[in-house]
């Protein structure tokens, strides 16, 4: 009853539509006594009960999904303290670039942490890559037996609860003929799922695949932290060359955290067939890309087409790509258009 209003008895004697003109004479002789106010009856429940019911239903669904059995089928230890968990769950269906929430009761019974799925929908399992950077990830690392040298039996692996998957902008990749994928640092993980799925679809039926060209940009301070992703690119690069379609995937790796000694090392080995850092045929570039030149080059190579721009990275980079997408799109409906999609961390 914080919100107050004029009482019904007062309204019968003091009509606001008439008395507001003569407020100086209220309480004196006439038909306008001083109005009386009191707290209005409670009304908030009418506006709260609907959203609360929806919220409780959503929490019940999430609780039910988190109770479903999840089986860890494989734990892979990658360099620089990164582990890959391959899991299976009955009825689990995913799309490219989606993410899940993970809880490990052996580490914490209350904490849920989001992880991007790095597997493709065509695979018979779903996977996440976890870099050990905190106490929870360290606990998961130890609970999975990754700190031990001997082989771990599957029944000794910890119980895992999974909630999801949840959608992201990356799901629309297959709606375009040409796409630009930009991953910054750990933001490269959703594109692992995208590139895997593209490869499966390409091998299965390339003629029905709408997507014809991928421009992939990977910006990172240190490629060693994501060496598992470089391995994926190496595999895709080799398979595309076997099928004589090396131009399907065009990628550029930018190492932003470089120093004088790395630049000298880069110059000495630039003429070698494979890059000395990633082992890929595409040489690692130092510094940051000139986005204006990149957009103009791609627009020139694909006139009259709609190009999807997908980013997983920081907000500052999102602003830059959004501005470039707008400035490089033509007003003519028949011209080139860049459609910007983002997910930030």
TrEMBL record:
The leader peptide range reads: none
A GO cellular component term found in this entry reads: monoatomic ion channel complex
Its main localization is membrane
How does this protein lie in the membrane? Answer: Multi-pass membrane protein
The coiled-coil regions, if any, are none
User: Can the keyword Iron be found in this entry's annotation?
Assistant: yes
Catalysed reactions, semicolon-separated: NADPH + 2 O2 = 2 superoxide + NADP(+) + H(+)
What is its biological role? Answer: Catalytic subunit of the phagocyte NADPH oxidase complex that mediates the transfer of electrons from cytosolic NADPH to O2 to produce the superoxide anion (O2(-)). In the activated complex, electrons are first transferred from NADPH to flavin adenine dinucleotide (FAD) and subsequently transferred via two heme molecules to molecular oxygen, producing superoxide through an outer-sphere reaction.
Protein known as: NADPH oxidase 2
């Amino acid at each position: 009853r914080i919100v107050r209003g004029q009482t019904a008895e007062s309204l019968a004697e003091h009509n606001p539509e008439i008395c507001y003109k003569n407020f100086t004479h209220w309480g004196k002789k006439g038909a306008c006594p001083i109005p009386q106010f009191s707290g209005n009856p409670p009304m908030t429940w009418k506006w709260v009960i609907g959203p609360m019911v929806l919220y409780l239903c959503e929490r019940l669904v999430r609780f039910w999904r988190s109770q479903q059995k999840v089986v860890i089928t494989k734990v892979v230890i990658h360099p620089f303290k990164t582990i890959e968990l391959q899991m299976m769950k009955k009825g689990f269906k995913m799309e490219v670039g989606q993410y899940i929430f993970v809880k490990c009761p052996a580490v914490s019974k209350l904490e849920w942490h989001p992880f991007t799925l790095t597997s493709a929908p065509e695979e018979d399992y779903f996977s996440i890559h976890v870099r050990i950077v905190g106490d929870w990830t360290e606990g998961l690392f130890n609970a999975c037996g990754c700190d031990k040298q001997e082989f771990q039996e599957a029944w000794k692996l910890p119980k895992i609860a999974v909630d999801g998957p949840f959608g992201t902008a990356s799901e629309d990749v297959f709606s375009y003929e040409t796409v630009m994928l930009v991953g910054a640092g750990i933001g490269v993980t959703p594109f692992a799922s995208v590139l895997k799925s593209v490869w499966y679809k390409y091998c299965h039926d390339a003629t029905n695949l709408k997507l014809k060209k991928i421009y992939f940009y990977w910006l990172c301070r240190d490629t060693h932290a994501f060496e598992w992703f470089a391995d994926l690119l190496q595999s895709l690069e080799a398979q595309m060359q076997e099928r004589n379609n090396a131009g399907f995937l065009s990628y550029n790796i930018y190492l932003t955290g470089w120093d004088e000694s790395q630049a000298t090392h880069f110059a000495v080995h630039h003429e070698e067939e494979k890059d000395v850092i990633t082992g890929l045929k595409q040489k690692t570039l130092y510094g940051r890309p000139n986005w204006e030149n990149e957009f103009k080059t791609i627009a020139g190579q694909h006139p009259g087409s709609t190009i999807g721009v997908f980013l997983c990275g920081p907000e500052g980079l999102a602003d830059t790509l959004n501005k470039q997408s707008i400035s490089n799109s033509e007003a003519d409906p028949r011209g080139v258009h860049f459609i910007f999609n983002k997910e930030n961390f």
